[in-house]
Amino acid sequence: MALSTPLSQMSVALPIGIDGSSRSMIKVQSVSFTEKSCGPLLRLDTVSRKLSLKKRSTVCMSLQQQASRSKVSVTPLELEDPKETPINLYRPKEPYTAKIVSVERIVGSQAPGETCHIVIDHDGKVPYWEGQSYGVIPPGENPKKPGAPHNVRLYSIASTRYGDSFDGKTASLCVRRAQYYDPETGKEDPSKAGVCSNFLCNAKPGDKVQITGPSGKVMLLPEEDPKATHIMIATGTGVAPFRGYLRRMFMEDVPTFKFDGLAWLFLGVANSDSLLYDEEFSSYLKDYPENFRYDKALSREEKNKKGGKMYVQDKIEEYSDEIFKLLDDGAHIYFCGLKGMMPGIQDTLKRVAEERGESWEQKLSQLRKNKQWHVEVY
Where is each FAD-binding FR-type domain found (predicted)? Predict the structure, then answer.
């Protein structure tokens, strides 16, 4: 979205302060855009977004901008029309060449590792639905197959079908940079770093990126019942599809989808600096308290009831009675994140079921039969 007004005539709130504890605000008059407004107030976080007003001629909605009750218009609404899920429009042998719009580090300095929010411009040629994935083929040669390209890496899409600019031309990925540290020396070994994640996290605006897909149906958001309950359980970057769900529910003005149910997000990360899209989710909690719940499990900062580290399964156990009742009433439950999250969660659910005098195996079978159980782990 290009700015149609000089910066001197804009109303921009700039938070000043490294730790966010003390913020000063600079205000000027009004803001308008050539196409559509990004909302009543544009917030540009000078620390987390590292945005230079001198260098940028366009401004899209910040990741940390408030999601107010005044929802954002989206286009083209034709993206609501197809009855069939878009699947594998582009395959590994003939990928689509997209462009990087932006790469943004979205974790604090105390987070273990680096996670980036990456916006990709597909020019509307690779449409997708919430809950699907893109494949990315990093540049270079596959070391195990000389002369052949790298294998496709799948990433859950972290935006709605309209993208972060609400025009149906971009998709966003949430990517953690894969790094390897020698257990003996403690030093990083670049030769064993993740090829695709490092390519994406190092990318610059305008860089080309080959994508495939979209793929996947198991995590599609069921929209037949706008009053349904959706329980979302994520670890780390597994929150990606849920960001798409929640933006569709609470941020975007979609005429054919008016959500009036309950969305409940459980997010497990290492510490407060590792929280992903926290300001976005917290704004929904403020604006839609009857429709959204948000629980965090910070393993390095919190203790569970037994005195151990607080993991997402401990939060599930804490609210187990409510969760089981909601599942009995038809709620959908989703899991996304590392494969290692599932054994602990399954053990917790089995233990809770047995305490309730139920067979977890039978209950799980029924949830799958009713299409209430959605799992995507990697």
Answer: 93-221
Across 31-43, average pLDDT: 35
The rounded distance, in Å, linking the Cα atoms of 19 and 137 is: 37
- Kindly list the catalytic residues: 155-156, 336, 376, 378
24-50 average pLDDT score: 35
User: Coil, strand or helix: which one is 92?
Assistant: coil
Residue keyed to tokens 């910070």:
298
Residue-level length of the chain? 378
Let me know: does 162 contact 169? Beta carbons within 8 Å: no
Task: Compute CA distances 213 → 94, 264, 296, whole Å.
Answer: 11, 28, 31
Strand locations in 69-207, DSSP E? 72-73, 96-105, 115-121, 133-137, 153-156, 170-176
- CA dihedral defined by 312, 251, 42, 277, rounded to 10 degrees? 10
What integer pLDDT is reported at residue 72 of this predicted model?
Answer: 96
119-137 per-position pLDDT tens digit: 999 999 999 999 999 999 9
Q: What is the DSSP letter of 150?
A: P
Give the dihedral sign, CA 332/336/340/344: negative
Q: What is the mean pLDDT of residues 246-262?
A: 97
